[in-house]
């Protein structure tokens, strides 16, 4: 499901009419956080979450943290609920054995960079990671989950979209009131290029560090100008992927935005392949979407790898350095 257009407009009548239901949603989130029996592990837990529903750049931040924690001498393990997967866990993700339909596309992607545990019960997932030798846990999308005590809480937001109309689901994109969520956070990562970073104008608590970061394509030597492309993406905001390709000089014969985590069924892929052949184009998608491709299709679809770069690496390293490696 794509987010409604009125989630960005506080004056829209639909948003105002739904605001009372949004207030109920916010109260339900507050009760869950207040009533949860939090468990303290013997190792640090770093939460990467969001206040918005939908795509904010959380997965690239999780990968970036795992890489930097490893550079600091840690053995980072990621714990995820495995959205879109059928396994309840705890299960240690094995990309050679598991499918996205079992563990979710994001855990499968992250497993290329760190050990990943999928668990609907985050406490059980954390214990499994600790017993397996993790020295630190990166909790993926756990900001509104009370199962584990969190030593560092990082909120991620798309710098261009910000926090929308400031209302809670279904009146707006927020899982909880903005002031409440930011008050619990230890740091805010805003994801976007320099232009949207300058335009980000959400008032923040004076003591909340803001870290600007941008997703940039890996320099693989690929010439994106040599042929037309059919680009498809089932991420939070597919247009960002299409624009990245255009900035690389790619000619996009067709763009196909899909719903976030939309299954890549044989029928859908066959249609995309047929349309690409008719346009003389090559299929290309995101790394997250590629994790959902059936094995038979992986040689037919190219991917655009991207990595997160922080404007101030020292600022991020200082946040992580408070947790010394064993």
UniProtKB/TrEMBL annotation:
GO BP terms in the entry: lipid A biosynthetic process; lipopolysaccharide core region biosynthetic process
Catalyzed reactions: a lipid A disaccharide + ATP = a lipid IVA + ADP + H(+)
Gene Ontology cellular-component annotations: plasma membrane
Top EC category: transferase
E.C. number: 2.7.1.130
Record keywords, A-Z: ATP-binding, Kinase, Lipid A biosynthesis, Lipid biosynthesis, Lipid metabolism, Nucleotide-binding, Transferase
Keyword hit for Lipid metabolism: yes
Pathway listed: Glycolipid biosynthesis; lipid IV(A) biosynthesis; lipid IV(A) from (3R)-3-hydroxytetradecanoyl-[acyl-carrier-protein] and UDP-N-acetyl-alpha-D-glucosamine: step 6/6
A Pfam family recorded for this sequence: LpxK
InterPro entries, sorted: LpxK (IPR003758), P-loop_NTPase (IPR027417)
Positions that bind ATP: 52-59
GO molecular function (one): ATP binding
Family: Belongs to the LpxK family.
Function: Transfers the gamma-phosphate of ATP to the 4'-position of a tetraacyldisaccharide 1-phosphate intermediate (termed DS-1-P) to form tetraacyldisaccharide 1,4'-bis-phosphate (lipid IVA).
HAMAP family documented for this protein: LpxK
Official protein name in the record: Tetraacyldisaccharide 4'-kinase
Gene this protein is translated from: lpxK
């Amino acid at each position: 499901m794509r987010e409604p257009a009125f989630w960005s407009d506080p004056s829209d009548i639909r948003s105002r009419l739904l605001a009372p239901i949004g207030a109920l949603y916010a109260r339900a989130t507050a009760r869950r956080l207040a009533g949860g029996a939090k468990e303290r592990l013997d190792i640090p837990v770093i939460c990467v979450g969001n206040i918005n529903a939908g795509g904010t750049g959380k997965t690239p931040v999780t990968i970036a943290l795992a890489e930097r924690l490893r550079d600091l001498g840690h053995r980072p393990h990621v714990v995820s609920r495995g959205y879109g997967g059928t396994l309840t866990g705890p299960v240690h993700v094995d990309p050679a054995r598991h499918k996205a339909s079992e563990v979710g596309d994001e855990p499968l992607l992250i497993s290329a960079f760190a050990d990943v545990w999928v668990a609907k019960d985050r406490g059980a997932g954390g214990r499994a990671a600790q017993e397996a030798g993790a020295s630190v846990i990166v909790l993926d999308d756990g900001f509104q989950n009370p199962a584990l005590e969190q030593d560092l809480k990082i909120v991620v937001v798309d710098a261009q979209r910000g926090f929308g109309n400031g209302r809670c689901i279904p009146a707006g994109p927020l899982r909880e009131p903005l002031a409440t969520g930011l008050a619990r956070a230890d740091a805010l990562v805003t994801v976007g290029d320099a232009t949207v970073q300058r335009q980000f104008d959400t008032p923040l608590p004076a003591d909340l560090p803001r870290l600007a970061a941008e997703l940039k394509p890996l320099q693989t030597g690929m010439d994106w100008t040599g042929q037309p492309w059919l680009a498809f993406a089932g991420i939070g905001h597919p247009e960002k992927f299409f624009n990245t390709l255009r900035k690389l000089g790619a000619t996009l014969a067709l763009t196909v935005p899909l719903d976030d985590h939309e299954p890549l069924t044989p029928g859908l892929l066959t249609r995309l392949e047929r349309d690409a052949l008719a346009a003389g184009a090559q299929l290309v998608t995101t790394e997250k979407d590629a994790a959902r491709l059936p094995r038979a299709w992986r040689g037919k679809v190219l991917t655009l790898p991207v990595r997160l770069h922080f404007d101030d690496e020292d600022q991020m390293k200082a946040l992580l350095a408070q947790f010394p490696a064993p």
